[in-house]
Amino acid sequence: MKAIIIDDERKAQNLMEALLQQNCIEVNSILKASNLLEGIKIIKETQPDIVFLDIDMPQHSGLEILDFFDNQPIDFQIIFVTAYNQYAVEAFKLSAIDYLLKPVDVQELITAVNKAQHIIENKSINNQIRDLKQAFKQLAINKVALEIPKGIIFAAEDDILYFEADGMYTKVHLLNNRTELICKPLKHFVSQLESKVSFYKPHRSYLINLKHINELSKKDGFHLIMENNKSIPVSKDKKEEFMQIIAEVF
């Protein structure tokens, strides 16, 4: 079988290559790539049987691989490799897709390769990928996918205080004073969440969760005081609309 290792760490690439050479004789050809885009290119050119895919990579997380084959059949087996990503691992378990935790255990690697070979021989790869996509959808119910450099955080909607525009990026403010910088503009989250009762855009730079408002201040204009004591302005053209929402929701 032909395999490709996609990992941004050269040391991790070489270690996985050595483990395969020493313990998995059925893998007789090993290719390597240092990022997802390079890996996608090699996959399309060489058609490997197995893809060992790191999750935590800069620019594109390994979890995004499905986006690059959206309308194409996937004829290779994916084995995700991760230091630990709670929601990703949960999705893998739901779909029965294989994953390896770093540092990679030799016996688990052998088991994963044997399982991959069985799936390839029985031509059931696409069923497994379909199940993985469904698993991610299932996890995303009442959660928001936040793409960070190391992967994807699935944040519960109730844990989000507000979104704040930061140029072409968005700062997401969560409970427990946690903040994440997301590589998407605010309008992405507005289109995704503004139709929901609990989310409202009081200002061009903010999308708030109404559940986490502590106070409405009319000093020096309308301002909303959030649970983290952040003051968020309400635009002049939104004042009347916001007061109507308060009357309907609270």
TrEMBL record:
<protein>
    <submittedName>
        <fullName>DNA-binding response regulator</fullName>
    </submittedName>
</protein>
<dbReference type="Pfam" id="PF00072">
    <property type="entry name" value="Response_reg"/>
</dbReference>
<keyword id="KW-0175">Coiled coil</keyword>
<feature type="coiled-coil region">
    <location>
        <begin position="115"/>
        <end position="142"/>
    </location>
</feature>
<feature type="domain" description="Response regulatory">
    <location>
        <begin position="2"/>
        <end position="117"/>
    </location>
</feature>
<dbReference type="InterPro" id="IPR011006">
    <property type="entry name" value="CheY-like_superfamily"/>
</dbReference>
<feature type="modified residue" description="4-aspartylphosphate">
    <location>
        <position position="54"/>
    </location>
</feature>
<dbReference type="Pfam" id="PF04397">
    <property type="entry name" value="LytTR"/>
</dbReference>
<keyword id="KW-0597">Phosphoprotein</keyword>
<dbReference type="InterPro" id="IPR046947">
    <property type="entry name" value="LytR-like"/>
</dbReference>
<feature type="domain" description="HTH LytTR-type">
    <location>
        <begin position="144"/>
        <end position="248"/>
    </location>
</feature>
<dbReference type="GO" id="GO:0000156">
    <property type="term" value="F:phosphorelay response regulator activity"/>
</dbReference>
<dbReference type="GO" id="GO:0003677">
    <property type="term" value="F:DNA binding"/>
</dbReference>
<dbReference type="InterPro" id="IPR007492">
    <property type="entry name" value="LytTR_DNA-bd_dom"/>
</dbReference>
<dbReference type="InterPro" id="IPR001789">
    <property type="entry name" value="Sig_transdc_resp-reg_receiver"/>
</dbReference>
<keyword id="KW-0238">DNA-binding</keyword>
